[in-house]
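Question:
Write out your own:
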Amino acid sequence: MIQRIQSLYLLLAAGAGAATWFYNLWKATINAAGSPTVVYFNAQSSYLVFIVYMVIVALALLCIFLYKNRKLQFRLTVLNIFLSAGAIVLQYFKVQETANKIETTTPIITSSYLPSAFLPVLMLIFLVLAARGIYKDEKLIKSLDRLR
């Protein structure tokens, strides 16, 4: 059913994934022509990162409505966990690539990850909690089937 706690976790994971599209994840201050300039990185800065997050959000939203087929819902949630972990790694490498590209032309004064950079980690946690809830439901249904 849609009112299960794992549906809430999947919705929160989708919300965190969608938020990565709009919030800046990394900020660098560079010394361009003698004046400090701020450069940002978000998911829209890289098409690959943006598409991976789109797939993760779509899969999380799809899993919410697969409540009648818990096995498929669990498998897709586990796949989404691996995609989310891969997206975190991809995001890190794309930020490093952006930093290296900037560093070749102008010196970077400061650079830091912004608090919104932890949204993918939060998304991963929500997906793990959803998978755990789906697994518990499946276990409960199997135990009830044994009693009949």
Notes: The chain has a mean pLDDT of 89. Strands lie at 26-32, 35-41, 108-113. Helices lie at 5-22, 47-64, 70-105, 119-147. The longest strand covers residues 26-32.
